[in-house]
Amino acid sequence: MTTPTLLVLDAEPLPRLGRLTGRARIEHADETTLAERLPHADVLLVWDFTSHAVRQAWPGDGPRPRWVHTASAGVDHLMCPELAESETVVTNARGVFDQPIAEYVAALVLAMAKDLPTTLRLQGERTWRHRESLRVAGTRACVVGSGPIGRAIARTLKALGITTALVGRTARTGVHGPGDLDRLLARADWVVAAAPLTDDTRGMFDARRFGMMQPSARFVNVGRGPLVVEDDLAEALTRRWIAGAALDVLSHEPLAADSPLWRVPNLIISPHMSGDTIGWRDELGAQFLELFESWAAGEPLANVVDKKRGYVPGH
Amino acid sequence: MTTPTLLVLDAEPLPRLGRLTGRARIEHADETTLAERLPHADVLLVWDFTSHAVRQAWPGDGPRPRWVHTASAGVDHLMCPELAESETVVTNARGVFDQPIAEYVAALVLAMAKDLPTTLRLQGERTWRHRESLRVAGTRACVVGSGPIGRAIARTLKALGITTALVGRTARTGVHGPGDLDRLLARADWVVAAAPLTDDTRGMFDARRFGMMQPSARFVNVGRGPLVVEDDLAEALTRRWIAGAALDVLSHEPLAADSPLWRVPNLIISPHMSGDTIGWRDELGAQFLELFESWAAGEPLANVVDKKRGYVPGH
To answer: Which residues form the D-isomer specific 2-hydroxyacid dehydrogenase NAD-binding domain (chains A, B) (predicted)?
Structure first.
């Protein structure tokens, strides 16, 4: 086998890539050079997972990479009809983000329950003002998205004594189907969006769904920004249809400084950081190197994305 | 049995006290009238647990209440030598605060791990700045105080995957003795103070102990303010001996607006609210009524405080 060409779409350096020296010809691309270099690559590593360049640059026909790996859980940023219909295998970073994101959701849920944003604001004003807060044990959560991230979130919330229902694309043991969603939303204290972005999930959290939630309900999005109709969420919070929300992902990232979302009442905005714990880039790099070993040995790859569905199918 | 006199030291109304109508003669006192009314009372209910009036007003000899109940976990605010040496039984609100305080500690630990105070500050500045945060699973906690509150904290932190050691006054199964404290502090990522305030624990978190913690360690106090030498903590944070801290209890409450503590870097200050979830006053009221039934029937009381030690002994 000739030395394969590994094309890396990167914005920041990838740790430990040097281990492939002699085993792959490593080339780098950015958004301006990707289209030109893509046809000559055997493997594309989408290290800069914030880029949407792959969709634009993917060759309609002719030579193209046989394998694309993205260092992200979602694949919505690179998927296009030509890639979906090609024989190219797509893999993702399934597994790396599960526990960190679950902890991040627990942090947001507890911060909202204990009214921590108000405490920090009052501290800034040097004001001691006792308030009663919410006990989370015994409350109810509905987690939308039954992949490894959604399941890790459900495990963590259950460990805090929260009765938690998981909703996925298809009903199975321990997972509700979409037909149960509205009923579960209507009685949830916490609604967590952790689904992949697909044609089915885009805009699923809209005025109708916020309107059916309890006035005391709080909403968290750690999936993808466009799962939520952001204007509808802003209205739901302003009119107090629901009590609070936290968005770690936004439709347009980074969120523009002049966006009205920054100042919506009872909304916490964080910069798409829920999965990114110290050492995460090392973990992503190690995961790619492991997959590369399988690929080079002609073995089946783990984490293969169902390109039509837009995620790795499984339990 | 003649109708007993129940004297209530209150600042706010006690829910459901009306249930005792006809079974007790209910009188009320505030800090100015307590000394005068105390000798005529059979039972004293310290509903205003922020008051230190009992210590001053307790009769040296002569008639005094046979039973004192405080609607708090700590008894440091009412204990004095005369009360400790008397035959008066003292009970506390053991049990009501365990789960709420454990959740509050989890909220603080996760908020510090996920750098939520910075996120909220940046949101106020309309600034999107991605940062890496800390994974709590696999970190180590040391919880000082092995009563029901400390044990609930340990259970909750363990449920988040944190390796947690409990330190109590005496070593027993699952609890380290004081001789292990410094060794455990030196390797902890999270140090949680949840001990009662006694002669042994006053000022136990001082410059020496902050100095032996890891530079990455974070400290949380949900016990009593004077467990901590606050000036030493301020120095430890300012000089970055430790990475962060959260105080829900302070030596002087409410904390004065001109206290320098409000602005110590990486310090979260909250107004003694960790145990006070919605409905807590109802729970405290119901707990007292249940104890009153036992007392009126001449049965042994639950939650009896060892007045010399200053807490309810037991597992």
So the answer is: 107-274
Residue in B52, B108, B103 with CA at minimum distance from that of residue B80:
B52
**Calpha distance B43→B30 (Å, rounded):** 15
- Distance CA(A29)–CA(A11), nearest Å, equals 9
Cα–Cα distance for residue pair A41/A67, rounded to 1 Å: 9
Across the interface, do B130 and A272 touch by the CB < 8 Å criterion? yes
**Residues A115, B90: Cα–Cα separation, whole Å:** 33
Inter-chain touch B262–A123, beta carbons under 8 Å: yes
Contacts for A39 with CB less than 8 Å, ≥ 6 apart:
A59, A62, A63, A64
Cα B40-B42-B45 angle, rounded to 5 deg:
105
Q: Which of A113, A114, A123 sits opposite B269 (nearest CB)?
A: A123
**pLDDT tens digits in sequence order for chain A, 315 residues long:** 689 999 999 988 887 888 898 899 999 999 999 999 999 999 999 999 888 999 999 988 889 999 999 999 999 999 999 999 999 999 999 999 999 999 999 999 999 999 999 999 999 999 999 999 999 999 999 999 999 999 999 999 999 999 999 999 999 999 999 999 999 999 999 999 999 999 999 999 999 999 999 999 999 999 999 999 999 999 999 999 999 999 999 999 999 999 999 999 999 999 999 999 999 999 999 999 999 999 999 999 999 999 999 999 975
Residue A244 backbone phi and psi in degrees, to 5: -175, 170
Q: According to DSSP H, which parts of chain B are helical?
A: 34-37, 53-57, 81-85, 98-113, 116-124, 148-159, 181-187, 207-212, 230-238, 280-296
Query: What stretch(es) of chain A map to CATH 3.40.50.720?
Result: 5-92+278-297, 97-269
Closest approach of chain A CAs to the CA of B76, in angstroms?
21
Residue in the structure block whose two tokens are 């009872």 = A266
Burial (0-12, 13-18, 19+ Cβ within 10 Å), B132: middle
Q: Is B133 on the interface with A (CB under 8 A)?
A: yes
The closest alpha carbon to A48, from A91, A11, A76, belongs to: A11
Does the B97-269 domain belong in CATH 3.50.50.60?
A: no
Task: Say if CB B237 and CB B203 are below 8 A apart.
Answer: no
CATH class of the region B5-92+278-297:
alpha beta
Q: How far apart, in whole angstroms, are the C-alpha atoms of residue B73 and residue B91?
A: 9
Helix H, strand E, coil C: the string for A261-307 is HHHCCCEEECCCCCCCECCHHHHHHHHHHHHHHHHHCCCCCCCECEC
Half-sphere exposure of A84 (CA within 13 A, CB side): 15
The answer to whether the CB of A219 falls within 8 A of the CB of A108 is no
Strands A43-46 and A218-221: unpaired
Verify whether residue B66 is a known catalytic residue.
Answer: no
